[in-house]
Amino acid sequence: MSIATRSLPRTIGAHAILLTYTVIALFPVILVVMNSFKSRAGIFGAPLTPPTPKTFDLIGYTTVIGQGDFFHYFQNSLVVTVGSLFFVLLFGAMAAFALSEYRFRGNTLMGLYLALGIMIPIRLATVAILQLMVASGLVNTLTALILVYTAQGLPLAVFILSEFMKQVSDDLKNAGRIDGLSEYTIFFRLVVPLVRPSMATVAVFTMIPIWNDLWFPLILAPSEETKTVTLGAQLFLGQFVTNWNAILAALSLAILPVLILYVIFSRQLIRGITSGAVK
Amino acid sequence: MGSLKIENVKKAFGPVEVLKGIDLEVTDGEFVVFVGPSGCGKSTLLRVIAGLEDSTSGRVLIDGTDVSVTPPAKRGIAMVFQTYALYPHLTVRNNMGLGLKQANTPAAEIERRIGIASSMLSLEPYLERRPAELSGGQRQRVAIGRAVVREPKLFLFDEPLSNLDAALRVNTRLEIAQLHRRLKATMIYVTHDQVEAMTLADKIVVLNAGKIEQIGGPMELYNAPANEFVAGFIGSPKMNFIDGARLGETAKTIGVRPEHLTVDPKSGAWKGTVVHAEHLGADTNLYLDCEKAGLITVRIFGVYDAEPGATLYATPEPGKTYRFGADGKVLK
User: Fold this and answer.
1) Is the pLDDT of residue A246 over 80?
2) DSSP character at residue A186
3) Residue B97's closest chain A neighbor by CA?
4) Which CATH number does B4-230 carry?
5) Which of A165, A163, A268, A133 is nearest to A207 (CA)?
6) Which end of chain A has a smaller Cβ tally under 10 Å, C or N?
7) Is B256 strand, coil or helix?
8) Which of residues 150-189 of B touch A (CB under 8 A)?
9) If you classify domain B238-324 with CATH, what class do you get?
10) Beta-carbon contacts of residue A59 (< 8 Å; ≥ 6 apart)
11) Residue B156 pairs with which residues in a beta bridge?
12) pLDDT band at residue A215 using 50, 70 and 90 as cut-offs
C-alpha cells in the first residue's frame, strides 16, 4: 500500500474489525485447548481462565492416551482423509481436464451434471448409501468412508479445477502434442504443476469437512476397528456422565493433524485464492 | 524434403464455418505466409496442417502422403507458438531435446542437434537455464531452436513475433529469414501483419472469412491485386478507395495507393483540404478531404510542410490506379 492511500483512522478501523473477527473465530478453539489442560473442578469453577498451577492437570490427556485406542482412531482418520483427498484431487483434476480440454457431445451437460452434487447434500442419500454398503459388504471398513467422501468432494473439485484448467495455455499443450507427449504426460507433467495452487485450495476445502465428519463414520463404520477421531471422542460423552477432560483433550489433539496439513497447503492456498485477482 | 498439399479442406465448429474449402500447394523449400485479418481462419488452417485440429472434410498431404489421420508428432512437423509455449519445468537443453527423446533418438544425436541449433541461435550460454530465467526474445529463440532440432519436413510458425516488442520483432524477423536461407526448409508462417508477410515470404496466401483471396509473391500482390480486399490489405498506409460514380467512372470503385498520389498547391485532379499531417521524417502522410474523392491518404517521400486547413491538389500517377467492379474484383 502506498503512503497516499493510507490513513491512520482507516488503518485502525480495519485492524479493529479484523481483530474482533479473529477473536470471535478463535474463542471456541482457545477455550477448548485451554480447558483441556485443567482439572475437572478447574473447568467448571472458572471455564474462562487459563490454567493456573492450582487447576493445571493433564488428566484429560492421560485418559485419552490410556483409555481406548486413540492412536488407532487417529490413524483411521488420517487414512480416510488422505485417501479421500488423493482420489478427489486425482479424479477431480482428470475430469476437469477432460471437460475443459476436449470438445465432445454433451460436454456442457456433463459439466452441469458433475456440478449438481454441490447443490444436493450427500447426506440426503444416507439410507441408500448404507443399503449399498451393506449389499457390497463394505460396512465397517475405511473403504466405505473413502468412497463416500470421494463422491462428496468431487463436485466442488471438478467445478473449481475446470475453471483453472481453462486458463492453462493451449499452446503449451499443443507444443507437447507436437513433441509426441501422451495426453497423460501432458496432464501430469504440464497441466497439473500449473494448477497446483488451485489444487491446494480444493484440498483444504475438501479435507476439513472430511476430518470433522461424525455422520458417516457413525453410520457406516462405527466398529472399534474403524472408528475415527471424532467418533472416538464420543466415547467420553455419556448419557449421564460426560468426561469433559477427556473430550477436550481429544478435540485438542484432533486439531493438530489438520493444522499440519493446512500449513503444508496454505502457501499454495493463498496463491490459489488470489490468482486471477492479481495477474 | 517437405512439400505440402491441401485439398478442399473445410472446418466447421458446430454451425460456424471457419474454413470454406481451401486448396493450396507448397513446394519444397518455400517460405509461405498466411496473412489475413483476425478471425479469417489462418490459425485454424495452420492447426489443421499440424494435426492439432481435425478438418471437417478434405485432405492434407505432406510429401505426397495423406496425413489427415496421423497424430501431430508423427507428421514430421515442428511448430513455433505465439506464446513460446516452453515447458516451464525443463531447462533450455531439455526443452529442445524432449521431442527427440520421445521419438527414441539416441542421446548422442540429440546432443549433436542441440549443439547445432543452439550455436545457430546463440543460445549456448542459456542451455542450463529454465524458461522463467530468460527474456522474451530468448524464449522465442528457444522455441525456434526446439523446432530446428527436430529437423522437420515442415516448419509451422503461429504469429511468432506478436509477443515481442518492436525492436526485437525486427531482429527476430531477420533471424527467421536467415534461418530459412540456411536450412532451406519449407516454412509456413501465420501473421496478421502485412509487413512481416511482405518481408519474409516467397509466396503470400491472403485469407479472408475462411477463403483464399489470392496467392502470389509479395510484389505480385502489391502490383496486381486480384480484388479490393487484397488491394486494401497489402500496403501501408492502406489503398484509397473512391466511389467511381463520384469521379464519373464506369467502375464501381477506383483504388489508388497513397504513394501513387502527388500533391501540388496550385493545380491537380482533386482539390482538397489538409485534415491532418503525419511527419515521419522519411515520409509524410497527408490526410486530404477532397471535394470529389472524399477523404484520402497521400504518402509523400521526404519532408513536406503542410498545415491543416491548407488547400492542396492531389493527382494520381498515370497507370497506377485500379478499377474494381461491383463484385470487388479488378476490372481488366
Assistant:
1) yes
2) I
3) A179
4) 3.40.50.300
5) A268
6) C
7) strand
8) 158
9) mainly beta
10) A39, A40, A245
11) B79, B188
12) very high
